[in-house]
Amino acid sequence: QVQLVESGGGMVQAGGSLTISCAASGGSFSNTAMAWFRQDPREYRLFVAAINSNGGNIDYADSVKGRFTISRDNAKDTIYLRMNNLKPDDTAVYYCAAETRGLRYLSRLAVEYDLWGRGTQVTVSS
């Protein structure tokens, strides 16, 4: 069974950095668009960043642009989210997601991603 497994979450002080990862197991996602979302205390799943299959097309939410970097290593079936200059408002559970239907655009909508990991907690203290 194909699974996505996030790792690397933790607690960091404001202004610090953290890198979280998402590894695919049981299958390859090298031809799949991937994304990071985060779930806030109101339980809305918010778009953070997305990357297409070859890394040539990337999109960021305005709130993280210039601070976060999404990347992927298809040889390892892994995507990463490097988070710099973290703020308390970045505190959330971060989820990675795969869009396996082959949409021809990078989506910011959670409903268009059909495979999800279980999430990793990122806590930023002030």
Report the major sheet: 7 strands, mixed
Order of helices and strands: EEEEEEEEEEE
Radius of gyration: 13 Å
Instruction: Give the integer mean of the pLDDT values.
Output: 94
Low-confidence stretches: none
Structural class: mainly beta
CA(first)-CA(last) distance: 40 Å
Task: Let me know the number of strands.
Answer: 11
Shape: globular
Counting copies of identical and different chains, the oligomeric state is single chain
Number of helices: 0
The percent range for helix content is: under 10%
The fraction of residues in strands falls at over 45%
Account of the protein in words:
By secondary structure, the protein is mostly beta strands. Helices cover 0% and strands 49% of the residues. The protein has no helices and 11 strands. It has strands spanning 3-7, 10-13, 18-25, 33-39, 45-51, 58-60, 68-73, 78-83, 92-99, 115-116, 120-125. Strands 2, 4, 5, 6, 9, 10 and 11 form a 7-stranded mixed beta sheet that branches. A 4-stranded antiparallel beta sheet has the order 1-3-8-7, with no helix packed on it. The N and C termini lie far apart (40 Å). The model has no long low-confidence stretch (mean pLDDT 94).
Topology:
Blueprint: E1 3-7, E2 10-13, E3 18-25, E4 33-39, E5 45-51, E6 58-60, E7 68-73, E8 78-83, E9 92-99, E10 115-116, E11 120-125
Parallel strand pairs: 2-11
Antiparallel strand pairs: 1-3, 3-8, 4-5, 4-9, 5-6, 7-8, 9-10, 9-11
